[in-house]
Amino acid sequence: MQQRWDFNEERQSDLKTLIQDLVLLESPSGDADRIHQVMERLVEDGATVPNIEIAWQEHEGQPILELHRGQGGALILGHADTVWPVGTLESMPWREENAEDGLRIYGPGILDMKAGLAMGLFALRQLSEDTPFDFLVTPDEEVGSEASRSIIESRAREAAVVLVLESGMPGGALKTARSGVGDFVGEIVGVESHAGLDPDKGASAIHEAAQQILWLTTLANHVLGTTVNVGTITGGTRTNVVAGQATLGIDVRVQTAGEMERINSTLAHPPVFDKHTRVQYIGGFNRPPMESNPASHRWFDRARQIWRHDTGEELLGLRVGGASDGNFTAAYAPTLDGLGAVGNGAHARHEHIEWQFVGPRLMLIAELLRAAGRSGR
Ligand SMILES: [Zn+2]
C-alpha cells in the first residue's frame, strides 16, 4: 500500500476554509449566478491541481463545470445547488460546535453537499499526476437534474466507476441502492348532472376516483419494495352536482427497473370501472432506481477494504428511499453513492457535518480514484 497523504493541520484548515467559502456563497437551485460563483470558487482551488483541464458548459441557462485530466478513470459527481433560499444564513449561520464525538459544523447546504464538493477537490490533490479523473459539478440536482441529465449520462458511459459526493449515512455508510421515484397524476373526467333530478344522466368522476384509488393500492408490491401512495385528491364542484372531474396525485417508489416498467405499462392502460367516465394517468419516473449489480458490488468491496484499513471499522452499504444523480449513472457504470461528508440533517435546519469523518473519507475517495485510474475503461 502506498504512502498515505498526511491530512495535517494546515490541510485541514485549508479544507475548512474552502467549505466555509462554499457555504457562505448561498446557491439555491435556479439561481444560476450564485451557482456559478460556487463553481468559480472550486475552480480557484482546482486550478492548482497539476495538468487539470477546466471546461464550462451551459445547459438551459445553467452552468455546468467539468474538471478533468486524461482519459478514463472515475467520474466524480457533485452538485452546487442547495434547497436553501438566499438569506438562510441569517437564521442558520456557519457554526462550529465541539460535541462529545468531535467537531460538528452547521450551515445551509454543508452536508448536501458543499463539504462533499470540497472533499472531492481535495481528493484530487492526493493523486499522482498521471491519474485520470472527470469531476462533474452540476447546478440542478435538487430539482431533478433536467439541465444536466444528458451530460451526466454521457460521462457515466465513459467511466470505470461513478463516485457520487452525496452525504454518507450516519456512521459513514454508503448508499448502494436507491429507489426510483415516480410522480403521476390521475385525471378522471365524468359527466355532470343534477344529483337529485338527473343522477342517471351523470357519471361521477369522484366515484370513479374512489375505485381507481383502491385499484392503485393493489399495484404496490411489498416483496419487491414497490410502494404506491395517493397523496392528494381533488374534484367536484358542489354536493348536489354529480362530479365532472377529479384528480389524484400519486407517488410511486420502485427498487428495480422491472418494477418501473410494470408500473409504467399498467398506468398506461388503466381499467375504467364506470364506462361513462374517462381515466388517464400522466407523469412518470423522474429518476430510475439505482440497483446494485456484480460490478458495483466489486467496487463496494474495494471501498470496504480501504475503509477497514484506514479506520478499523466496517463500512456498510444501505438502500435508501431518496434519489440522486446516482440513479441516472447506475444504468451505465458501477456507482457508489454517499461518498461525501458524514453528518445529519440534510434539507433540515440542524444540517451539519461531523469533522472526524472528513479525513478517512478523503482517503477513501482518493484511493478509489487511484483504483479507477489503474482499471482504465
Ligand atoms: Zn444532494
Describe the protein's architecture and organization.
The protein is α+β, with helices and mostly antiparallel strands. It folds into 2 domains: 9-178 and 289-375, Aminopeptidase (3-Layer(aba) Sandwich), CATH 3.40.630.10; 180-287, Alpha-Beta Plaits (2-Layer Sandwich), CATH 3.30.70. It is built from 10 helices and 18 strands. The strands form 5 sheets. The chain has a 6-stranded mixed sheet with strand order 1-2-6-3-7-16, sandwiched between helices. Strands 4-5-18-17 form a 4-stranded antiparallel sheet, with helices on one face. A 4-stranded antiparallel sheet has the order 11-13-9-14, with helices on one face. Helix 1 crosses helix 4. The longest helix is centred in the last third of the chain and has 18 residues, at 294-311. The relative contact order is 0.19. Zinc ion binds at residues 79, 112-113, 141, 166, 324. Zinc ion is lined by residues 79, 112-113, 141, 166, 324.
What's this entry about, in short?
The protein folds into 2 domains: about 10-180 and about 290-375, Aminopeptidase (3-Layer(aba) Sandwich); about 180-285, 2-Layer Sandwich (Alpha-Beta Plaits). The protein is elongated. With about 375 residues, the chain is α+β, with helices and mostly antiparallel strands.
